[in-house]
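Reopening: structure tokens for the iron/sulfur cluster complex, inputs below.
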Amino acid sequence: MALTGMAVYKSLPKTNCGDCGFPTCMAFAMQVAAKQKAMTDCPHLSDQAKSEMSDASAPPMKLVHIGPAGAAGFEIGQETVMFRHEEKFHKPPALAIRIAASLSDDEAAAKLDTINGAVFTRVGQQIGVGLAAVEVDGLAADAAAARVKALAGKSRVPLVVMTENAETMAAAAGALAGQKPLLYKATPANAEAFIKIAADAKCPLALSADTLEKLADLAAAAKEKGVTDLVLAFDGTKVASAVRDITVARRAALRKQFRALGYPAMVNVAVDDPARETVLASTFAAKYAGVLIMNGDDSAELLPVLTTIQNIYTDPQVPNTVEAKLYEIGNVTDGSPVLFTTNFALTYFSVEAEVERSKVPAYICVVDTEGLGVLNAYAGDKISAEKVVKSLDAMQVAGKVKHRKLIIPGLLPSFRAEIEDSSPWKEVLIGPETASGIPAFLVQSWK
Ligand code: SF4
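Re-run output (same inputs, fresh job):
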């Protein structure tokens, strides 16, 4: 039965010391009840309370940390719902780009350089490759150790070590002591040795088997040896069976509290065809991978997948907004153009990016439309000429520029007459319908 916040609270010390990162014991208790925190995250819990409550209060899906502690690491798992609209998905998956064992040292280093540089800004957020998957299959143990050590020293991201050979994995894990790479992967054939390696090196371990029953047995065996940072690994090229098995495992963990499958999933979608790999990665980003192993490192392949992840892992109940205020783009003067747009983040950042691209410094007045884009805001009565004029007044835009020209979105041409009639903005220019037209518009129209 699910724990209530009050039941959790009764077992806490009730000192409100804040050492758990929450201001009060009650706030922490609510997080435990929501399965976002484990009871053991309170460092002052009595032993009795720990043994009574920790199993019952543990999140149904384990939080797994890959890489060094702190910001350099990557967390996956601790999801709470099957469907995004029920609440939200919490931990966006990491793209792990495969560095093949067949590459020379120089080629591997060059691939890592590309991974290090694979960071993009979209809708005001940084998105990028989260892991480097270093394949050492077929390498001698000492060569594998040297390869992972050399790459780890230059890597921006934590590593996944890929081999099913126990001797090779032991050498590689030993060379990365303290760096907590994800060891990929234990199978029924090598499980005993791999679980020992993971236990000795204190590393997270990926498990793989051809049925969920065998996978649950592997997880139970690992847990018995003290290895609890586990990831369930699936073959993404077998799309139908992988989607079915991941879904069944997640449902068993979240809905039935079946602890043996209560771990995040990872999917290997590495194939030679970039288009197919992009589709596979996007599919499993939605269903329900925490790590995606890919070959491709080209931005044309990465960006669609990263964009999919970003979209899926936003909170569907909270509009993606920016603050409604006056933004100054570049070195604005009293002769700079003034535009307005809505506070839907995607709209604002598209407009901002295109104004920057135009190299014409400008003011952007962002009107509060409750997170709706231009047409939706107009259709939903969240924007009007009167509201635009009031926003310009409130932000005192007329005091910033000497002219009285205002550029309005091309999707709202009907606002022109009303704004000119009812405000000091006597010359309203109808801008382009899409943000991509802004640079040409500003360069040609703004003299
Ligand atoms: S660390 Fe424990 S005692 Fe302190 S506020 Fe958090 S829950 Fe309460």
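The chain has a mean pLDDT of 94. The chain has 16 helices and 17 strands. Marking as resolved unless the reporter disagrees.
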